[in-house]
User: Which sequence fits this backbone?
C-alpha cells in the first residue's frame, strides 16, 4: 500500500541516497524529494532514480527555476516540488513529463497553479494556513484537487489535517536529518507510516 507522503531528504548526500531511499520504500513511503539546497542534489536524485525508479516517484524539492527543472529531468527525476508558485516552473515541469507540486498559500496561488497544470498543491507553510484555512480554501477548489500539507503537519496532527480534507503530507526533519543512520531513517519512517495509517479516514 502506498501512502500520500512525500519524504523531504534535505541535506542528504549522494553516497547515502540510494540506501536511504530503499529504507523509505521498505517502510511504505514511495514519493521522495531531494531539496536542491542539499549537497550535490542532482547526483543524489540520479543515484536514487537509477536504483529505485520502478518502485518510487523520485525527484527534487526547492525547485525555483526552469533550468533546474531540466536538470531534474536529466537526472532521472519525475517529481518537481517548489516552495512557491511559479507558472514558468510548472509549465516546464509538465512539458518535461514530470509531476508538478508547487507551494501555495492563498486561493489566488492555488488557482494559478492549477491553471498552469500543477498535479497537486503543496500548502506551505501548513502551520501558517492551518486546518481551518484549508477547510475554507477547499470549499472553492475544483473537486478532486490533491492537497498536501507541508510544514506543521506530522504524526501528532495527521488526523486533524485529514479531517480538514488534506490528501497527504510532505515530511522533512521528522523523517531525515543529516547524519542519521539507516536504522534511524527506517525507525522514523515506520513511525510516520504507522501514524499515517492510524489517522487516515
Assistant:
Amino acid at each position: 500500500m502506498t501512502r500520500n507522503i512525500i519524504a523531504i531528504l534535505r541535506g542528504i548526500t549522494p553516497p547515502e541516497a540510494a540506501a536511504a531511499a530503499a529504507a523509505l520504500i521498505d517502510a511504505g513511503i514511495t514519493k521522495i524529494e531531494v531539496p536542491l539546497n542539499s549537497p550535490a542534489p542532482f547526483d543524489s536524485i540520479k543515484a536514487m532514480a537509477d536504483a529505485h525508479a520502478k518502485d518510487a516517484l523520485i525527484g527534487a524539492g526547492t525547485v525555483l527555476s526552469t533550468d533546474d527543472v531540466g536538470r531534474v529531468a536529466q537526472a532521472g527525476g519525475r517529481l518537481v516540488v517548489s516552495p512557491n508558485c511559479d507558472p514558468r516552473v510548472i509549465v516546464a515541469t509538465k512539458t518535461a513529463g514530470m509531476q508538478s507540486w508547487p507551494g501555495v498559500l492563498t486561493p489566488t496561488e492555488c488557482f494559478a497553479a492549477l491553471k498552469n497544470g500543477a498535479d497537486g498543491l503543496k500548502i506551505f507553510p501548513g502551520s501558517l494556513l492551518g486546518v481551518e484555512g484549508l477547510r475554507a480554501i477547499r470549499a472553492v477548489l475544483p473537486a478532486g484537487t490533491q492537497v498536501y500539507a507541508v510544514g506543521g503537519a506530522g504524526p501528532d496532527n495527521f488526523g486533524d489535517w485529514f479531517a480538514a480534507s488534506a490528501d497527504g503530507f510532505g515530511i522533512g526533519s521528522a523523517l531525515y536529518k543529516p547524519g542519521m543512520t539507516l536504522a534511524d531513517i527506517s525507525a522514523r519512517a515506520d513511525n510516520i507510516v504507522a501514524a499515517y495509517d492510524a489517522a487516515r479516514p
Notes: The chain has a mean pLDDT of 97.
